[in-house]
Amino acid sequence: MQFFVMAKTVLKSLFRKPATVKYPFGPKMLSEFARGSISIDISRCIFCGMCQRKCPTGAIVVTREEKTWNIARLKCITCGYCVEVCPKKCLQMSNQYTEPMLTKHEDLYKNA
Amino acid sequence: MTKRTIIPFGPQHPVLPEPIHLDLVLEDELVVEAIPSIGFIHRGLEKLVEKKDFIDFVYVAERICGICSFIHGLTYCIAVEEIMKIKVPERADYLRTIWSELSRMHSHLLWMGLMADSFGFESLFMHTWRMREKILDIIENTTGGRVIFASAKVGGVRRDIDSATLKSISKSLESYKNELKEITDIFIKDSSVQHRLVGVGVLKKGQAYELGAVGPTLRASGWSIDTRKLGYAAYKNIDFEPVVETSGDSYARCVVRIKELFQSIDIIRQLAGKIPDGPIEIKITGNPDGEFFARTEQPRGEVIYYAKANGTKFLQRLRVRTPTFANIPSLVKMLPGSSLADVPVLVLTIDPCISCTER
Ligand code: SF4
Ligand code: SF4
Fold first, then answer.
1. Under CATH, which number does the domain B41-358 receive?
2. What CATH code would you report for A47-95?
3. Is the pLDDT at A99 greater than 70, yes or no?
4. Burial of B261 (0-12, 13-18, 19+ CB in 10 A)
5. What is the pLDDT of residues B145-188, one digit of tens each?
6. Residue B314, C-beta contacts closer than 8 angstroms, at least 6 positions apart
7. Residue A112 reports pLDDT greater than 70
8. Contact criterion met (CB < 8 Å) for B189 and A8
9. Which residue has the least CA distance to atom 7 on ligand 1?
């Protein structure tokens, strides 16, 4: 049984800089590989609907006639399955998280 | 005879991260009986297996628990792969084992923090979680997520860790060891910690076995039983022995988890040295038909997945027996005889995960 075992740790941390990030005053540290949100390069999409078929939560809706690609951000669980199956590799997992939203809107992309 | 009072404990209580309810029958300050009730967060995930096809269900299995998410997904995958007689590539097995051990580390550190919090040692709680953050960073850098890894899939794993990263992980864990030892020494040696843990909630060797305890709770009572020894994934190629303590009290359960932390670092080092090159997944065709019991070791103990398939895309039945569910009888046996002030500590010593228990 010992006393003051923690004293060393406490003293050390007095002179160390904080372990936490001073966000929003300091930079937000995101891992390069973080699964933040899905981004699409709509000009390369061929509207095959592969991503829609494989998405486990049904977050993506693709229409071939109108050439639209629609994602419900709040449904997406950023699993990355759509990125894996896309034949044109036009989907990407970006490490930026989507912004907070007040309504359950969906993001619509259209190939003009 | 002194008058008996019943004190309700939970489902909302400061030490409980998740809801469980106990009716504590007290005589003065001493607990004479504890009656648990669960079912506050049942989500019906087992039933969902009839609606999600067997490949997509990995995502649901991962969400059964927020701490052992990866091992839940992994066990589900093992069950389905065994039914379909798939042999996953060896590299995938190694990667799965590495992520399992990282999960174990972050879970044990989480538990140590919560434990320190439950006996009122706030600064120790903060320091433990500071250490945990480093493990979470490794996890995020290799899988992209801190909680949900989304890395296990039927037939292998989704992403690879390149050998340079693996080397740097095992090297950084070596230096991490010293820093970690500084924190774990406080748990092992400090008098105020010992005052709250030594001799509290003793679970005798025979009792632990009869009540079907699993994981650290069982090993702290002197049983050398560890499901990893079955050799699933890459554990068959790794040299390790289950950590065993004999006194069966809260302190022993704490020591088992601390030793397992260092054991995990050692296992990851061995894995990083041995990992073979090669593919990380194989393509699966067809649907599963048959049934299988998969067993793996989670941070809290043994988890069992029973899966039954009938040749369609949807499994017929899935049953998950989680470690906390197996440990609740031991908890109920530990409580009588302890004082009311020790109840929070005792509830935490089995490392309860209620989301798991109720699925
Ligand atoms: S899979 Fe790729 S190409 Fe096909 S619709 Fe989706 S984003 Fe477009
Ligand atoms: S990341 Fe997963 S959940 Fe999100 S849109 Fe792609 S497949 Fe669907």
1. 1.10.645.10
2. 3.30.70.20
3. yes
4. buried
5. 888 888 888 888 888 888 888 888 888 888 888 888 888 888 88
6. B49, B50, B51, B52, B53, B54
7. no
8. no
9. A45
